[in-house]
Design goal:
It contains one helix and 25 strands. With about 280 residues, it is an all-beta fold. It is globular.
């Protein structure tokens, strides 16, 4: 049973075709924060390996996974393949992160060279490319991107080991957090947690994950991915990457950085439809 996302005194309820919402703005504080996920199942992408990026298309209710080299595949929420796609040329061959902009209805793909490509989330036709100024922002090897409920963009800088907050247009730096100091050395992925202001962040150095607030405050300390510590328990994941969260049911997915499998983790506090709470307020 899906738990609803409260919206200004009314709740959104799950239906077989998606969700219906009451009037008013989402009251994200009314949705209990997910503080841990438990391994559920794995899917094999077969001919797609070195999985580096993924996003949840909220409008189409589809999950999309990508190889570092650009080959991608669309899936339903239960892990059924829906079709193949290819990342835009501007996002290749160093694709290393993705997200979904619910306001603009576009997929966001980021390269290690810190190019941000906006594309149609189903066809992957390119719409716009923004080159982040690596010299001005003092970033390097971009390895993840997410849009917060504050409407800002959060970029993972692997080389400087930081989470850098920028305006959505990528033109202005707002804040930065030293992730190495939080035991998240060589960060390699970020995703907004469904129904929350918090982010799930990966570290490639120690293969750990943690839950952080937008200002970098530690909500759930780093724990080894795939072991029995939160926030991602079980599954025996060896090299994790391409993290995403699904607001349609609250699940988190993590893929094999050098393999062909992606792994589904369910929220410890139960499934929830919180897509209305991901819209920047």
């Amino acid at each position: 049973m899906l738990r609803p996302c409260a919206r200004g005194g009314e709740a959104s309820t799950s239906t077989s075709g998606g969700s219906t919402t009451g009037a008013g703005e989402c009251v994200i504080a009314d949705v209990p924060d997910t503080l841990g996920f438990v391994y559920s199942k794995s899917i094999d992408l077969g001919d797609i390996d070195t999985i580096q990026a993924s996003y949840y298309n909220i409008d189409a209710q589809e999950i999309v996974f990508f190889s570092y080299f650009g080959a991608g595949r669309r899936f339903s929420l239960d892990g059924q393949a829906l079709g193949d796609v290819t990342a835009p040329a501007d996002a290749l061959p160093k694709l290393d992160g993705a997200s979904y902009d619910q306001v603009g209805g576009v997929a966001l793909l980021i390269t290690q060279d810190c190019r941000l490509v906006e594309a149609d989330p189903v066809t992957l036709q390119p719409l716009k490319t923004i080159q982040l100024d690596v010299a001005e922002f003092k970033i390097g090897v971009c390895a993840g991107v997410a849009i917060g409920v504050d409407g800002n963009m959060y970029v993972i800088s692997w080389q400087t080991e930081e989470m850098v907050t920028m305006t959505r247009d990528g033109q202005t730096e707002l804040a930065r957090v030293n992730l190495a100091a939080l035991d998240l050395a060589r960060p390699d992925g970020i995703s907004l947690i469904a129904g929350s202001e918090n982010f799930l962040v990966l570290s490639s150095a120690k293969q750990q994950a943690a839950i952080l607030a937008p200002d970098g405050a530690v909500v759930v300390p780093p724990g080894p991915v795939g072991q029995m510590s939160p926030p991602l328990k079980g599954g025996m994941i060896v090299n994790s990457d391409a993290i995403l969260t699904v607001c349609g049911n609250g699940h988190a997915w993590v893929c094999d950085e050098y393999g062909t499998k992606c792994h589904d983790f369910v929220p410890e506090d139960g499934d929830k439809d919180a897509c209305a709470c991901t819209i920047p307020q």
